Amino acid sequence: MKKKLGSAILRFVILIIVLLASFLLLRFYFTSRESVSYEAPLTPVRTVKASHGDISQSVSFLGYIESDQMVPVVPFVSGTILEYSIKEGDEVEKDQVVARIDSEPYRLQALQAEAQATALESAYERMQKLYESNAVSQQEYEAVVAQRNAANAQKSLADLQLSYADVKSPISGTVIMSKGSVGSIGTNTDYLAIVADMDSLVINLSIASRYYDTIKGNADSLEIKVYDETRGLESSAAIVSVAPMIDPLSRSFNLKLKLDDPEDFTIGSACSVTITYEKIEDVYTLPTNVLRLDDSLYYISDGKACYMEYDPSYENDDLIICPDGMEDYDFVIEGQNSLFDGQSVRILGE
């Protein structure tokens, strides 16, 4: 019994020694190794400096290029087309003959009217002599005068219709549509061609009524630009007319513009129109996306983000005026929504 008790005590002592030795070894290990510290990475941000230039208020609209003069060539008499001398793209002068309609029926009609007028002119001359000698009554005389005048009018009409057999261009310009042909029938109910003045191009815009006072009240000082972005064309434009009223149904008004440099623009092509109605020149500006949703921004000073409340004195959709005296500062344009005041940052690109 004593032998078993001594053996148990020995095992217990050995266990204590082992545990103590393990504790000492672990303590030595942890106290002797180098300590490791963790540093959080700096928040990356992108910054921008103020730019020097102009800032303006403008509105943009979509429209189509038209000719201020776009006139159909319509025959005034009907008949078979014997000559048709134009095609699309041709330049024509005012009163230039572009087609000829068979004139024979109208020539015969003119000859008939001329013969009738000649006969009644002779009858009138005889009647006048008789009337002056009181050989006929005034009623008989006036009847012959009326017949003579009617015959002369009929002759003038026949001559006019004969002249209309030569179909002329009503204006000088470019043929933009041609659909006549030799052998077809020309009538006064359909056009043979359309001629447009390519040097007088306009845009007719229908604009929402909320812009009426702005455009009407600043018509003399507006800066207007027209762009054909597909073809890379640009022209300034002037106001031709502003509608005197707002359409109560569509709540819009009409604005007509004329291009200052119409060369290379094409009738029917789509374009954008930018109307600048207010401008501040020679100022420092920042992109609008430096602003946070709560009308604040961050700038960088000594590697740290500095919070600043800012309500711009002037802005548009793209730019705001830079805070006074901060033209050389770096303003956070990306990453500002996750910053706090005084936070150290890393500027991307440096």
Structure class:
alpha+beta
What's the CATH topology name of the largest domain? Elongation Factor Tu (Ef-tu), domain 3
The helix fraction, in percent, is 25-40%
Mean pLDDT: 90
Order of helices and strands: HEEEEEEHHEEEEEHEEEEEEEEE
Largest sheet: 6 strands, antiparallel, barrel
Number of helices: 4
Radius of gyration based on Cα positions: 46 Å
- Taken together, the total number of domains comes to 4
The fraction of residues in strands falls at 35-45%
Unreliably modeled segments: none
What is the topology?
Blueprint: H1 2-32, E1 43-48, E2 51-67, E3 70-73, E4 79-84, E5 91-92, E6 97-101, H2 104-132, H3 138-163, E7 166-168, E8 173-178, E9 185-186, E10 193-196, E11 201-208, H4 212-217, E12 223-228, E13 233-242, E14 252-259, E15 270-287, E16 296-301, E17 304-309, E18 319-321, E19 330-334, E20 345-347
Parallel strand pairs: 1-20
Antiparallel strand pairs: 1-19, 2-11, 2-15, 3-10, 4-6, 4-9, 5-8, 6-7, 8-10, 11-14, 12-13, 12-15, 13-14, 15-18, 16-17, 16-19
Helix pairs in contact: 2-3
What labels would you give this structure?
350 residues; alpha+beta; Elongation Factor Tu (Ef-tu), domain 3; OB fold (Dihydrolipoamide Acetyltransferase, E2P); 4 domains; 6-stranded antiparallel barrel; 5-stranded mixed β-sheet; rod-shaped
